[in-house]
Amino acid sequence: MSGLHEAFLRVPLAHRALHDVSAGRPENSRAAVRAAVARGYGIEIDIQPSSDGVAMVFHDVMLDRLTGESGPVRQRSCAELAGIALTGGDEGIPTLAQVLSDVDDRTPVLIEIKDQDGAMGANVGDLEAAIARDLAGYDGPVAVMSFNPHSVAAMAELAPGITRGLTTSGYLAEHWPTLPEHVRQNLRGMPDLDRLDVSFISHDARDLQSDRVAAVRQSGLPILCWTIRSVEDETKAREVADNITFEGYLPALPA
């Protein structure tokens, strides 16, 4: 596996791309991606599957919050999803292939694979295969990550040359109410880091002071964090994290 490209430690990453509905750029939209590229930021995007096995750039399991439609994303075809306008914009839900074409190697792309098992279990693989197909031949700085360790393991098999990481958290019950306590406790300890041979973690900024994160930092593994929403929070996060995922403000770019 390739190590984490230096750009992921240098250029702030726009959470769900540089979204701003007031400017016609919904989250995870091609408009938000183009804006991030134009301003020199990296991007973080989320992937859900279409019913016909295409990797779609969309955060939620359901369409309701981000579009005028309702129901699960995975019950609509790629063509149907492309025709559903994102609320606050004038474009449909994009594919990963379209976003990669828009970026065209110019900025780092951090791809979060959303859990498809429902409980961070092993019922995964189809979405990872679709992502691996889209990344084949892409030459720009790119990395994949997921909260679900099984998803990261699937990517290791399907695309061993693609940099991978683990999305991590303190897994408080209030933030993860549908996960059983034993699952949350296990994930909180990050027991899979060595087995998965990851190149980084991307950790909840609210939990950066935890002992487990300190141990990860001591090991030398790069730490990204999510989601930073102010200069003040960025300053605090950078005491621990090597880079940030941000939204709602414009952090300084490296000289």
Number of domains: 1
Percent helix among the residues?
A: 25-40%
Give the strand content.
15-25%
| Rg calculated over all Cα atoms | 17 Å
Mean pLDDT: 97
Low-confidence stretches: none
- The CATH class assignment is Alpha Beta
Order of helices and strands: HEHEEHHEHEHEHHEHEHE
Tell the overall outline: globular
Q: Order of strands side by side in the largest beta sheet?
A: 1-2-4-5-6-7-8-9
CATH architecture assignment: Alpha-Beta Barrel
Alpha-beta content class: alpha/beta
DSSP strand tally? 9
Give a description of the structure:
This protein is an alpha/beta fold and 255 residues long. The chain has one domain: Phosphatidylinositol (PI) phosphodiesterase (TIM Barrel), CATH 3.20.20. 29% of the residues lie in helices and 17% in strands. An eight-stranded parallel barrel has the order 1-2-4-5-6-7-8-9, surrounded by six helices. β5, α6 (149-158) and β6 (163-168) form a beta-alpha-beta unit. α2 (30-39) runs parallel beside α4 (96-103). The protein is globular, with a radius of gyration of 17 Å. It starts with 6 loop residues before the first helix and ends in a 9-residue tail after the last strand.
